[in-house]
Every structure is written in C-alpha cells, then in structure tokens.
C-alpha cells in the first residue's frame, strides 16, 4: 500500500509540473529521483535555471534513429566525425545524435526555442567540440550557420527535424554540402505518389492537424535531384545517403512507405477522418480531400503527384 501511495504521489507531482510546462527527464534518466526533481529541479526550471541532464538509464529515440545511424553510417574518418543537428531541442531528450557527442564527435546543434536552448547549453557544456546556435533556421540562413561552425563540405551525419519547411532547408544544404548520412522526418499522412510540402512562411505552430513537413515522395524527388537515395524508412524517420555509397538498389517511395511505415504503423486513429486511407484511393481523389481539409491553408503548401 505504501508503494502504491508513493506512485500516486509521484504521478501527481509530475502531472502538476507538466501542467506548468516543465517535463520530467526521461531520456538517459531512468534512475532519476522524482522527489528530488520535483522539490529542486522543477521549480528552478520554471524560472529558467537548469541542471545538466544526467546520463543514466536507457537511451531511446522515437523510431530508433540512433540505432539506424550506427547501422547505416559509412565509417567516418577521424577528421570527419562531424554532425549537424537542426532542431536539437534540449540536446538529449529523444535526441538522435546525443550518442555521437558522448563519443567525442564535433558538431553543430541549433535550436530556436529559448527554454530548450538553455537546457541544451547547460547539458552540452561538457562537449566543447560541439558548437551551439540559437536561431530560427530558414533556407536563407542555414548555409551561413554551417559555415560559421566550420562545417566540412563533406561531413558524417545531418539530423534535420524542424516540423516546418524542412524540404527547402534540406535543399539549401545539399546545394553546398554532402553529408554521408541524413536523418530527417517525413509527414506519413501523405502516401506515395503524393508530393506534399509546407512552403516557407506557411508553417503552423502545431502538428496537431498534420500540417507540417514533407511527404516521402517529395523527399525522394529532392534526393534524386541531389544524387541521394532514401535507404530506409521507419515510421516518420527517413534515412538518406549518397547514391554512390548505397550498396543496395534504389527503392521506390511506394516500397519504402509500405515496408517502413504502413506495415508497422497503420493510420493513426487520431488522424482526422478526411486524411485517413489516402493511399487506398486514386491520387486525384486524395489530393482533392487534402485540399478540402486544408482549405484555410491555400497558398501555404504544395500538393501534387
């Protein structure tokens, strides 16, 4: 009974701080003390004062991106162990490249949100070889950000997760740089052959209505243009590498989507009814339903076949 009451109390205090916008640590923090966190760390975090995140417990990412990085990444040379993390959040919570920091890699981590960047700066103080930037990333400034961090023209890993106009930021990067492995997010609500992307300036403040990012077919078109292949897909996470480094035959967006998303993560029940089952109808009908659903976003996205 005592342990049950303790668990109820912990859930209550964690729930209270969550409602205040302060989240308990979960990544690399399986052994954190919730009472100490609630008594000391959470009140200070509410005032913008952060403790470095610990590194105990079990590491995890949304779609096992860290495991895919280890498996897919071509062996980097000693001088090329450099990553770029755009949309880094606090640098540790569900972060795809934190493991590279712990291995002594150099890199650039960029986050726009002030509170998340503050946590990032505190935790990454132990990684002096990682440059930090607090900036809203755009296609116009992303190359300057990489140049300012002395990013090599050919570097090992690019992790891109902005939840907005990622397509155009990636396009700008690939015009100047050649990462060996790219990890980026797709919007799985729009199956092949639909090419969907949010336009610059058309982004939403929330993903709740699925208005964000790009479809896998839109990403594939950019990959082909830049000489890359999408080598794997798991859930929302797509993995790309230069075509000349890919040992496997190029896979179509339809095949990637079927094996990497649809068979593992069927359409979510939380998706709006108008956007469910788009892969089961003709592309023209799918586009009509998308345009009808986003009628108030006209001019802020593209949606073609």
Please give a structural write-up.
This protein is of the alpha/beta class and 305 residues long. The chain folds into two domains: 2-46, no CATH class; 65-304, 3-Layer(aba) Sandwich (Rossmann fold), CATH 3.40.50.150. The protein has ten helices and nine strands. It has helices spanning 2-19, 34-46, 65-72, 98-102, 114-123, 142-148, 166-174, 216-226, 253-262, 283-293, and strands at 82-86, 106-110, 130-133, 157-160, 181-185, 195-198, 228-234, 237-242, 301-304. A seven-stranded mixed β-sheet has the order 3-2-1-4-5-8-7, with helices on both faces. Strand 2 (106-110), helix 5 (114-123) and strand 3 form a beta-alpha-beta unit. The longest helix has 18 residues, at 2-19. The model has no long low-confidence stretch (mean pLDDT 89).
Integer tally of domains: 2
Give the averaged pLDDT, no decimals: 89
Strand order of the largest sheet: 3-2-1-4-5-8-7
Structural class: alpha/beta
CATH class of the largest domain: Alpha Beta
Fraction of residues in H or I helices: 25-40%
Report the radius of gyration as a whole number of Å.
Answer: 20 Å
Q: Could you give a quick summary of the protein structure above?
A:
With 305 residues, the chain is an alpha/beta fold.
